[in-house]
Amino acid sequence: MLRCGQMMLAQALICRHLGRDWSWEKQKEQPKEYQRILQCFLDRKDCCYSIHQMAQMGVGEGKSIGEWFGPNTVAQVLKKLALFDEWNSLAVYVSMDNTVVIEDIKKMCRVLPLSADTAGDRPPDSLTASNQGDELIFLDPHTTQTFVDTEENGTVNDQTFHCLQSPQRMNILNLDPSVALGFFCKEEKDFDNWCSLVQKEILKENLRMFELVQKHPSHWPPFVPPAKPEVTTTGAEFIDSTEQLEEFDLEEDFEILSV
Fold it and tell me: How far apart are CA 90 and CA 78, in angstroms?
């Protein structure tokens, strides 16, 4: 599930920096933004969205290191890690009770200048990329790969970051309902268009996966936009920059994160 979360976020970053029409071509020189995106996901403790950082941040969500993460936990972890990601400047919103609140999202994004994919539970943990009728087309990250690090010239050998096998199919009725839907909106007009599309195509259905409302429900706790937590020195603190993380030897034990 951690890899699925990485795949979903990586797709959002590609849309953010390279556009939705960009596609990867094997053995072709890639733009520098692409290389920098890859570096966000290297299996190193000093990379913002690495397995190490996600597992450590999961401790704050009540998940021990090595414990299985569900879609909601992964989404909450990515929301917290995004607060420390200054380069991508993302605002990650995780809906409460399957209800997307337009007012809350615009409030959260006010300080910042569509679909990213679906991260799902069994069968198996995978990323849904498209569909054809009632058939879902998905990518399965459950493949053992060799560890990859940054080359001397600053690039990353990207072969293992892409699915070289053919996408798989399954009927939508076999989809586990425990899923996270991801949407990326680069500008406010993109979000407004997404809201219009949801209201037109989804909210008319009797059994819809989520709700979309304009105002924050009065019976909910007040919405507080997420903010970067203060760094403490208790020995179990969150390291708030990659520069600080680089000081640690990669073979040390985990540094537990807390927020």
Answer: 10
Predicted structure pTM score: 0.77
Question: Is 239 in contact with 255 (CB distance < 8 Å)?
Answer: yes
Instruction: Copy the structure tokens of residue 162.
Output: 């892409």
pLDDT, one tens digit per residue, over 87-116 is 998 999 999 999 999 999 999 887 554 456
**Structure-token pair, residue 132:** 């054809």
Residue with tokens 């054809």: 132
Nearest by Cα to 56 from 69, 47, 65: 65
**Res 188 pLDDT > 50:** yes
Q: Which two tokens stand for residue 94?
A: 């995780």
Give the Cα separation of 187 and 97 in Å (integer).
25
Contact 57, 257 (CB under 8 A): yes
* Per-domain boundaries in the chain: 2-94+114-186+227-245
- Three-state SS for 237? coil
Whether 251 has a pLDDT exceeding 50, the answer reads: no
- 142/218: higher pLDDT: 218
Reading the block at residue 58, the tokens are 């999961």
